[in-house]
Write a structure and sequence with these properties.
By secondary structure, this protein is an all-alpha fold. It has a single domain, classed as Hypothetical protein af1432 (Orthogonal Bundle). The chain contains twelve helices and no strands. It is globular, with a radius of gyration of 18 Å.
Length: about 190
């Protein structure tokens, strides 16, 4: 049974995660995207991509989806700092931010979330490798979608992100995506 204090602390964390639905991914502003995706939108598709990659790579899809779901949750506190900005800032580690976020949550919740974030940040398992590739592949796919919308400056982000992929499955999916329309999935039903 959970006491009221831990219940409130756990709900506070859940409410904080709602901010991810309103927080934009700021790196896309650099390439001129006026209304970029939210952090929650990015994390959702990253978790789906991670599950698919895990199935292809022989990793645990549920574990990868969990790692992907929590990989950017710290951005409620520090924002989405684009890579160009990170070279000028010294920020707390994602593990430290997470510890603050869950400080008042039920101990089981706090320990579980902290373990997930620590594994994503420091682990070297196949699941961690796949989760990192899922994050990059999602960014690449989003960049391709922005290219379709006329944001030409997204090309460099697409290419540089693609070059960082490590797993054979992520590379194969990236190759397949290069010449596809984001509406390709509809073609089956339009025939």
């Amino acid at each position: 049974m959970m006491d009221e204090q831990h219940a409130r602390g756990s709900v506070t964390y859940l409410m904080e995660m709602g901010a991810l639905k309103r927080s934009r991914r700021s790196g896309w502003w650099i390439v001129g995207v006026k209304d970029p995706e939210t952090i929650a939108e990015h994390s959702f598709r990253t978790a789906i991509i991670g599950s698919v990659l895990a199935m292809l790579e022989g990793a645990d899809p549920a574990k990868v989806a969990l790692l992907c779901t929590f990989h950017d949750t710290q951005e409620t506190r520090v924002g989405d700092i684009p890579w160009v900005g990170r070279r000028y800032l010294t920020a707390a580690s994602n593990e430290d931010v997470t510890a603050d976020q869950v400080a008042d949550a039920h101990p089981a919740v706090a320990a579980g979330i902290q373990a997930i974030v620590a594994e994503y940040e420091n682990g070297d398992s196949l699941e961690v490798l796949v989760a990192h590739d899922a994050d990059k592949l999602e960014c690449m796919l989003q960049g391709l979608e922005y290219l379709e919308q006329g944001y030409r400056n997204a090309r460099e982000w697409v290419d540089s992100t693609r070059a960082k992929l490590k797993t054979p499955s992520a590379i194969a999916l990236a190759n397949a995506a290069q010449d596809m329309s984001s509406a390709e999935w509809q073609r089956t039903y339009l025939r």
